[in-house]
Structures are given as structure tokens and as C-alpha cells.
């Protein structure tokens, strides 16, 4: 091999190494960022979620007042569809009560879609209730995918 071939191999190897390094660093950053939301209290988590929704193309994103909100924490609109969203920052799986709140709040605010957004996952009864009541369940995986986008 001549010198030109060695230089080409070295440059190509360096580029591949840098790409891998950047991917690993991004994954680490996202994981560290993702854990951050577990430390938030309820109202902080609502504002955190509202910010993520805005970054993902939702408009007219509004965090409702803390009490008397009829179970809805965020009102938003995307592509002409209105959303009533219940946020739950828990340390355990989210149950049926959150689904019921989203269902009642969706109708109260006259929205097209009701959703529960959480940093955890949902119990099986919550999943079954959501199917029956047509409520979207946005779990930890969904939240982390929003962060990664």
C-alpha cells in the first residue's frame, strides 16, 4: 500500500470513530435527561410536558390551574385536533383513576382526544379502561421518544 491509501484509511477510521462517539454521547445525554423528569413534582412535570408538546408541534399548549381543572393538566391542539391531557409523575404504575380523569376532562373541556402522559407505565386495568373509553396512554417510552426527537 502506498502512503495515500494509509492516509485514506486513517481518515476513514477517524470519521467512523467520531460518528460512534457522537452516537454514544447522545444516548448518554438522553438517558441522563430522561431521568431528570422523575425528580419533578406534579406541577413542574406538567410544565415540563407542556414544553415537550410545544417542541413536538402542538400549538395553543396551556397548563390548567392546579385545582378545579377537572382532571386535565394540559390543553393543546395539533393539526386541528384538540387534546385534553392528564399528567402523572409517579414512582409506580398509573392506574384507572387517571384514565377516568382524562375521560371526564376531555368531555368537560369539549376536546376531541383525551390522553394520560406519565413518566411510568400503566396497570393492565388502566390499559383496558383506556381502550374502552378511547383515551390515549402515553407512557415512559413515549415520553422518552419525545425527548429523543
What keyword list fits this structure?
149 residues; elongated; 2 domains; 5 strands; 5 helices
How would you describe this protein?
There is one protein chain. This protein has 5 helices and 5 strands, in the order H-H-E-E-E-H-E-H-E-H. The protein has 149 residues and is α/β, with parallel strands linked by helices. The protein has 2 domains: 1-38; 40-148, Trna Endonuclease, Chain: A, domain 1. It has a 5-stranded mixed beta sheet, with helices on both faces. Helix 1 packs across helix 5 and helix 3 packs parallel to helix 4 (124-133). The radius of gyration is 21 Å and the shape is elongated.
Give the helix level as a range of percent: 40-55%
Task: Give helix and strand order, one letter per element, not per position.
Answer: HHEEEHEHEH
Structural class: alpha/beta
Radius of gyration: 21 Å
Question: What's the shape?
Answer: elongated
CATH topology of the largest domain: Trna Endonuclease, Chain: A, domain 1
Percentage of residues in DSSP E strands: 15-25%
Largest sheet, strands/sense/barrel: 5 strands, mixed
CATH class group of the largest domain: Alpha Beta
Q: How much is the average pLDDT?
A: 87
| Poorly predicted parts | none
Tally of distinct domains: 2
Amino acid at each position: 500500500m502506498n502512503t495515500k491509501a494509509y492516509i485514506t484509511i486513517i481518515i476513514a477510521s477517524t470519521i467512523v470513530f467520531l460518528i460512534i462517539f457522537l452516537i454514544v454521547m447522545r444516548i448518554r445525554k438522553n438517558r441522563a435527561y430522561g431521568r431528570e423528569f422523575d425528580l419533578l413534582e406534579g406541577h413542574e412535570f406538567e410544565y415540563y410536558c407542556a414544553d415537550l408538546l410545544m417542541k413536538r408541534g402542538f400549538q395553543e399548549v396551556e397548563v390548567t390551574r392546579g385545582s378545579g381543572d377537572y382532571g386535565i393538566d394540559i390543553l393543546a391542539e395539533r393539526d386541528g385536533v384538540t387534546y385534553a391531557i392528564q399528567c402523572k409523575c409517579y414512582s409506580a404504575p398509573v392506574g384507572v383513576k387517571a384514565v377516568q380523569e382524562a375521560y371526564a376532562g376531555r368531555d368537560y373541556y369539549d376536546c376531541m382526544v383525551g390522553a394520560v402522559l406519565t413518566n411510568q407505565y400503566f396497570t393492565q386495568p388502566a390499559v383496558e379502561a383506556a381502550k374502552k373509553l378511547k383515551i390515549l396512554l402515553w407512557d415512559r417510552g413515549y415520553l422518552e421518544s419525545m425527548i429523543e426527537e
